[in-house]
């Protein structure tokens, strides 16, 4: 066992406080990574507060991890000491079910092992995330980080990036398509960048007209203010795909009216109930509503390679580990453009 | 103008009563059809009662029409006097929008012309449906009826048939797929027959265990009683596709739990709001919910040809036009297996 330190919450009311714990020694298939940067995902706050009624304490959050390899097990093939490496939302899966066989480990029939707020695959020991100095992860769940990217801004790609990249690939986003991104936050700002890089005509759909200027800087071709009925009418029945990043229950019916025949809306943000869908809004136009959760390991690597080729990273605001509770408070108020990243050197 | 007679409702409270009206003379592209049989669709009752707040009176319902051609316009190519012919839910569309160009006239961007409770394409004259002695329809919206089928049992194929056939084709139903049909009524019983004929493993999903025996006669391989938690658990995460024929708002979340990874549920019955969908039920497993409305004219013909090849018709109960109000009352109580058809010879 190797001594580790990081920040944890002790219960649903606790702030993040310094926390000492043990990481396993790297086994033959494991990669040991010194964490350089870790993104702050909105789900870190949901999990810390037990909003989804499945929280395990003490909890070391963090699943947007980049760092440098410090040791590898005897059977590790793709990584060597000194390599850059990334770790996202999962660190294990059964590796033999049909989902795993289809490179969709996030939907593992036996349940994926989540990077934190889970238990190790073969024990009841808690998994601890990236708000910490190092992590030990099975090679299959580690991804290579392109050397040409700004490393600190790569961290959010491991969750916010793949969560938006995967559904865009699922609907074969590309030239000739009109794609709307609903909600301009950590997920939405990545959705705009990816949809644009894939060649689509991108419309940022937001309740806040003041976000428009920034959305265009990120790559949006147009802005649609969803509270403006004239604007909504103008874009009615015109979208091939809507990437819906809203993280709380809401009324999707007005957005369904924006979809053209056979149009699809992908939900990536909300785990809780949405307002009642009107059946006729799906039937008239054969419209679809689907959900998508992160992406498999092969697709996560593909996403990072795509980012390397297109020079895509997240827009980040750096934060010291000592200020992480304050960052959470600001994130709660959507006061971040667009992702906080912890500089783990500040752990001292 | 040709004199016609049928049955109509005069307002939302009215019973069906004898009604005299005029049909247009067949134009150069029109087919004139003597109606032999007309199915009674549950939507006839919804429309008569103004349940969807769009009813136009007087209303002659009926959009499951089969009959024999009595006259054709000069430019009609596919039909001649004496042919069997069918007419379904629509009698016109713009013929030039992208939906029409894709043989999806039901989603016409200018709006399809419905067989009844609509207005003629180029006038404000009401369209009158199949509870009548004859109808005049543009050739493009007429389909050929295979000669080998029991004609009276063909009528329901024009709506209940195509409504269930189309989404099964949309999801490429076939061998190796496990398909569930939710709700055993006019739509559901056709869904079972089609899914079976397409080669899928078919599970009838019903709240009523007593419907099981009949579902197996119709072709179901298995019965799943949705009120039985053990049965629901046994089938969890196992369906490729669910055809949901429930015609009123309901909770789809338990059914989403039956879908496997990338599974889809097609909604064909409910135009009104459904209960709140839990976002996580879509996200975990990348599941889809889509709507589907009838089918285009080419697919309606394909469906009838498929029925001819596989000897598929609806299970019907014949009714005299004089007893049509009583039939509506029984349909309201789901007391029909599985579709009433009016023998139009009883119109006298």
TrEMBL record, chains A, B:
PROSITE patterns the record matches: ADH_ZINC, D_2_HYDROXYACID_DH_1
Family (UniProt): Belongs to the zinc-containing alcohol dehydrogenase family.
Domain Enoyl reductase (ER), chain residue ranges per copy: 12-342
GO molecular function terms listed in the Swiss-Prot or TrEMBL record: alcohol dehydrogenase (NADP+) activity; zinc ion binding
Keyword Hydrolase applies: no
Keywords of this entry: Metal-binding, Oxidoreductase, Zinc
Name of the protein in question: Hydroxyacid dehydrogenase
Annotated SMART domains: PKS_ER
One matching Pfam family: ADH_N
Keyword Transmembrane (UniProt): no
């Amino acid at each position: 066992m190797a001594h580790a330190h990081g920040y944890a919450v002790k219960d649903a009311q606790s702030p993040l406080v310094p926390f000492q714990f043990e990481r396993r020694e790297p086994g033959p298939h494991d990669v040991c990574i010194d964490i350089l940067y870790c993104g702050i995902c909105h789900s870190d706050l949901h999990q810390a507060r037990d909003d989804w009624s499945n929280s395990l304490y003490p909890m070391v959050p963090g699943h947007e991890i980049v760092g440098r390899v410090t040791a590898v097990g005897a059977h590790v093939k793709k990584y060597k000491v000194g390599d850059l490496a990334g770790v996202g939302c999962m660190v294990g899966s059964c590796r033999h079910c049909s989902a795993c066989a289809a490179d969709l480990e996030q939907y593992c029939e036996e349940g994926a092992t989540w990077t934190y707020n889970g238990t190790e695959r073969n024990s009841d020991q808690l998994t601890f995330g990236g708000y910490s100095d190092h992590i030990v992860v099975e090679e299959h769940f580690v991804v290579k980080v392109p050397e040409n990217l700004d490393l600190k801004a790569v961290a959010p790609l491991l969750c916010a990036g793949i969560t938006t990249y995967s559904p865009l690939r699922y609907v074969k986003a590309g030239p000739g398509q009109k794609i709307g991104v609903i909600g301009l936050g950590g997920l939405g700002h990545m959705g705009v960048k990816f949809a644009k890089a894939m060649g689509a005509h991108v419309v940022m759909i937001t309740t806040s007209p003041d976000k428009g200027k920034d959305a265009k800087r990120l790559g949006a071709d147009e802005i649609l203010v969803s509270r403006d009925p004239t604007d909504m009418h103008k874009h009615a029945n015109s979208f091939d795909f809507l990437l819906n990043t809203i993280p709380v229950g809401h009324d999707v019916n007005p957005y369904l009216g924006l979809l053209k025949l056979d149009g699809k809306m992908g939900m990536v943000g909300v785990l809780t109930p949405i307002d009642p869908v009107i059946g006729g809004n799906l039937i008239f136009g054969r419209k679809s509503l689907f959900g998508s959760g992160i992406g498999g390991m092969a697709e996560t690597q593909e996403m990072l390679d795509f980012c390397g080729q297109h020079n895509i990273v997240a827009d980040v605001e750096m934060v010291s580990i000592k200020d992480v509770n304050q960052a959470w408070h600001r994130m709660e108020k959507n006061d971040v453009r667009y992702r906080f990243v912890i500089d783990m050197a500040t752990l001292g």
